[in-house]
Amino acid sequence: MRSKGNRFWNGDNRFRLMLTLGLAVLLPAAALIYVNFRHLESIKRDKKVEALIHRDFQYVLAVSEKKLNQKAYAMTETVRDLFPSPDSDNVQDKEKALDQILSKNPWLAHVFIFDHDKGMIFRPQPQKLNDVYCRKEHEMMAESYSGCFGMEGKMLVEGLHKKSRPISWYGGQTKRADGEAFITTAFFVLPQVSKDRVVLAGASFDPALRAFYYVRVIEIPTPRWTAYDAKYFGIKMPAEVTMTTTERAYTSPIWYTP
């Protein structure tokens, strides 16, 4: 004689079918939820590791930037202290003093003094005068800075006097015989000049020698979450889906030895 339980399972085929189908749907769904949960946990761990690496990189970059920044300002201030007084009316004496600065500091490409009342004195590195690229660079920069300081010199001087270290930096592209280069110029006011006078001085650093640069640091590309998913699930993402990300950081002027 069959038990009631056996009669129940054997007699109600419809119920057994519904139960079987329900389990067939629920069990894989539960398994998928669990797998996705574990996958998300692994991504979180990877993100934490990535965040730690990124934090350490930013810390090292900040420390290096601070040291290089101090070096840049110290070197510029040393050169600034060698500049002649703009009060002299003898242009030749000023040119001679600027030429001496260049001869003692071969890593400089140009030095100059701009006085709103007396004009611009712009001197290139003497040994570079035979270089056609350096001559063109000298002519272009002398004309460009003279025009800029003539229009905006007062504003620049006022801005520099508001800084704890009255030095500003300007970088731009130039050319050399071996191709494109990057030249950086330091603008500053002279300590012996009163604040109400529009007098600016500066020094440009030769890109072919030791110089200062603004650089952009590009980190190694790292996988995005789309790449993790593609790897984990064994699928191929569409071509328009971005699979990596690249972090960027910018530095202050850096002392560089080629």
Give a brief outline of the structure:
By secondary structure, the chain is of the alpha+beta class. The protein has helices at 4-11, 13-80, 91-104, 132-161, 225-233, and strands spanning 108-115, 119-124, 167-176, 179-188, 199-205, 211-213, 216-218, 222-223, 244-245, 248-250, 254-256.
Structure description:
- This protein has helices at about 5-10, 15-80, 90-105, 130-160, 225-235, and strands at about 110-115, 120-125, 165-175, 180-190, 200-205, 210-215, 215-220, 220-225, 245, 250, 255.
- The termini are far apart.
- The protein is an alpha+beta fold.
- Strand 1 (about 110-115) and strand 2 (about 120-125) form a beta hairpin.
Order of helices and strands: HHHEEHEEEEEEHEEE
Radius of gyration: 34 Å
Q: Indicate the CATH architecture of the largest domain.
A: 2-Layer Sandwich
Globally, the shape reads elongated
Share of helical residues? 40-55%
**CATH topology title of the largest domain:** Beta-Lactamase
Number of helices, counting only DSSP H or I runs of 4 residues or more: 5
N- to C-terminal distance:
98 Å
Structural class: alpha+beta
**What's the number of domains?**
2
Keywords:
five-stranded antiparallel beta sheet; 22% strand; two-stranded antiparallel sheet; 2 domains; 258 residues; single chain; Beta-Lactamase; alpha+beta; 5 helices
